[in-house]
Here is the input.
Amino acid sequence: MVVTTMTHHRPRPVVLHLLIQIHFVVIVCSLRPSSAGGNHTVAVPPLFPCLSDQASALLRLKRSFATTNESTMAFRSWRAGTDCCGWAGVRCGDAEGRVASLDLGNCRLESGGLDPALFDLTSLENLNLAYNDFNGSQLPSSGFEHLTKLTHLNLSSSSFSGPAPTSIGSLTNLVSLDLSTGFETTELLSNGYVLHVDSNLGSRLIVQNIETLIANLINLTKLHLGRVDLSNIETHWCNVLAKSCPKLQVLSLPYSRLSGSICSSLHSLHSLVVIDLQYNYLSGPIPDFLTNFSNLSVLQLNHNNFEGWISSAIFEHKKLVTIDLHINYEISGYLPNFSTSSNLVNLNVGRTNLSGIIPASIGNLISLRKLGLGASGFFGQIPSSIANLKSLSALEISGKGIIGSIPSWVSNLTSLTTLQFYDCGLSGSLPSFIGDLRYLRNLAVSNCNFSGQIPPYISNLTQMQIILLNSNYISGTMELTSFRKFPDLIALDLSDNNLVVVDGQDNSSLASLPKIAHLSLSGCNMSEFPNFLRHQDEIGSIDLSDNQIHGAIPLWAWETWKDLFFLILANNKFTSIGYSPFLPPQIEVLDLSNNMFEGAIPIPHGSAIMLDYSNNRFSSVPSNFSSHLSDVTLFKASRNNLSGEIPLSFCAGTSIQLLDLSYNNFSGPIPSCLMENVNGMQSLYLNKNQLHGEFPDNIKEYCSFEALDVSGNWIEGQLP
Ligand SMILES: *[C@@H]1O[C@H](CO)[C@@H](O)[C@H](O)[C@H]1NC(C)=O
Ligand SMILES: *[C@@H]1O[C@H](CO)[C@@H](O)[C@H](O)[C@H]1NC(C)=O
Ligand SMILES: *[C@@H]1O[C@H](CO)[C@@H](O)[C@H](O)[C@H]1NC(C)=O
Ligand SMILES: *[C@@H]1O[C@H](CO)[C@@H](O)[C@H](O)[C@H]1NC(C)=O
Ligand SMILES: *[C@@H]1O[C@H](CO)[C@@H](O)[C@H](O)[C@H]1NC(C)=O
Ligand SMILES: *[C@@H]1O[C@H](CO)[C@@H](O)[C@H](O)[C@H]1NC(C)=O
Ligand SMILES: *[C@@H]1O[C@H](CO)[C@@H](O)[C@H](O)[C@H]1NC(C)=O
Ligand SMILES: *[C@@H]1O[C@H](CO)[C@@H](O)[C@H](O)[C@H]1NC(C)=O
Ligand SMILES: *[C@@H]1O[C@H](CO)[C@@H](O)[C@H](O)[C@H]1NC(C)=O
Ligand SMILES: *[C@@H]1O[C@H](CO)[C@@H](O)[C@H](O)[C@H]1NC(C)=O
Ligand SMILES: *[C@@H]1O[C@H](CO)[C@@H](O)[C@H](O)[C@H]1NC(C)=O
Ligand SMILES: *[C@@H]1O[C@H](CO)[C@@H](O)[C@H](O)[C@H]1NC(C)=O
Here is the structure.
């Protein structure tokens, strides 16, 4: 018997991480002013000179840092025999000569681990080790419990990894706790994926039990756990917070793999000023009671799965400075009529389901610097009152109902650094005034109706970092070497226009081209593998799909692309991978479908997520690839020449949601381990092979299929 069901999941862009170096604007080490001959710390003699045990603990701590220019600078005043209460970054309490504050924040010191000498400073009230480099080491699991007077603990961006010590949870005087790691991101949408340019993918602290960490911190007003891994916390974070930390003003948990929803008990935290939950997996509605938090100033809920109707009253909150909801595809609602008394500086509702007209009153928001209206449900005219917003540095608009040409008032927004029109009905050629926006660094006009040639003035915008012109009707020939004029370019997307993209004449010094992180040239009428890529050793994502590129992938490509995590070569005429069966480890998404590839299926060495080999001439699967399948969610290899028994390695793919091996020559039975191990699998396609035997009888226990097709084989047995 054969069961065939088909389901279609609504495609949802997948957020991937594209690592590039973005350098932080680092505040100067707090020690510098005084060590550079500054005033108070050295000049004012403390009432009680430093106790010797305090000095020796500090000196041991100093020795635990590597000797670098930074440490020499930071510790210049830390000399044995002098009063440690006068050392830079050290402050003693009113009595007894004991250290009450140690501030080494932003000193960029390097150490292999935090020295337990620190825990001898038992009078510490303030400890700041932020922005130093502890080299991915673990925090000592015990010791913090000795610092019972601590009110401020700041270990932000210090490259610690592993478990956050539970002993921090006993510091009941804590008012501020910062274990976060800072980050900066840029987003690009490509081929249905949100690529996420990220400044920091390094080590993470892990909190297993949020209750142990915060249950006793009743005086906590600031909690910063950005980038701490909270994916395994055992209790509902939201209820624990609401119950334990009634005085909380700053709740900052971005990027911490949080799931669940915002609980109703959170309404008791009405002193909240900052709610930053961006880049998580949160779902459920955005509660109305947030509107009642009278001091709420920052609401960042972007990049989650929130859903439902959002009250437009939240946008009218008088104290709100930032409201960012973007990338929450299922939040619906309307923008309100904005009043002149609003304090909004950042407003972003991009890639939500917000709809309606964009109110002309948006021109009342004169403090706005970033405005993101990229929701496809908006229609009508873009109000020209936006031209009043002289401080705007970023403007992002979309909506298929938004038609006409790019309005001329955009030229009045002379501070723009980012201009984006996507998924819109705007047409005509790109206006020349864009060439006058001299601070412009990011230009994206994607998936609209623009036509004409790429305007020549573009080449005068030499400061550009991101140029995305994909999915329009732009025509002409584009030479890749002409991008030499943009030394800072990190992302280029010319896909799906009427363009012909060629390498260009001047390939004399390819090495002098900008180092690009993201290149998308899908449907660009290319017939040769671009030489342009030869020196792109910082590239993270490449899309060359829908061209007529033939032959082998050059060996230099695999040797050069050390950071590549996203490679789309679908719909070309490639015949050879040009590399051994295991590809470089960091590739997460690989789409080789609809080519003429032969030989063994190449599998990325590391933890790939999506692999598509469909419709090629692959004839074998590597003999043991089970250790490379742990994170794969989609594996498609239909319509190839694969034969033999279905490899048992597939049983290791416990994350696989879709496995498609249809239209091959696989023979033998369906492995029963496939049923056991892939119990999260939703779709399994084994149709049109030469499979024999009974259907594994353990399917009943594990059946969670939404689609299962074994037709066109010789399989017997009854399915439940
Ligand atoms: C040093 O003292 C002078 C005069 O008292 C003051 O103007 C200056 O701001 C102080 N500098 C620092 C770094 O505290
Ligand atoms: C350290 O300082 C010395 C002298 O100022 C300088 O020559 C050297 O380049 C510096 N080293 C680093 C790594 O900055
Ligand atoms: C932690 O210290 C860093 C660097 O000094 C600072 O930027 C950050 O705001 C501090 N965190 C808190 C919660 O004060
Ligand atoms: C940092 O860690 C790396 C690898 O674990 C090690 O090789 C290096 O020596 C460490 N550096 C310091 C300063 O401890
Ligand atoms: C919390 O703060 C209050 C007022 O500052 C103080 O009296 C109390 O002792 C603190 N509670 C704890 C557990 O530290
Ligand atoms: C809002 O802030 C003001 C001033 O800091 C403070 O007096 C007031 O109590 C705060 N309101 C709430 C609900 O916390
Ligand atoms: C907001 O506060 C008002 C007055 O305290 C109250 O009547 C209302 O129900 C609250 N709204 C929400 C959504 O909690
Ligand atoms: C999007 O909003 C419209 C109303 O504007 C609503 O009909 C539709 O169900 C919403 N879609 C989703 C996915 O929330
Ligand atoms: C904004 O005002 C216009 C008329 O001034 C009105 O038609 C519209 O319903 C108002 N929108 C909202 C969301 O209040
Ligand atoms: C744009 O600026 C020009 C010149 O400064 C001015 O005449 C025009 O009214 C402005 N346009 C809008 C829509 O504000
Ligand atoms: C955009 O182009 C498409 C395809 O050519 C066309 O169907 C549509 O009407 C155009 N929309 C506008 C607003 O010009
Ligand atoms: C580029 O800038 C130069 C100098 O400002 C100017 O003369 C030239 O016309 C500009 N080219 C284009 C195509 O706008």
Notes: Residues 105-106, 128, 130-131, 154, 156, 176, 178, 222, 224 surround 2-acetamido-2-deoxy-beta-D-glucopyranose (ligand 3) (CB under 6 Å). The mean pLDDT is 87.
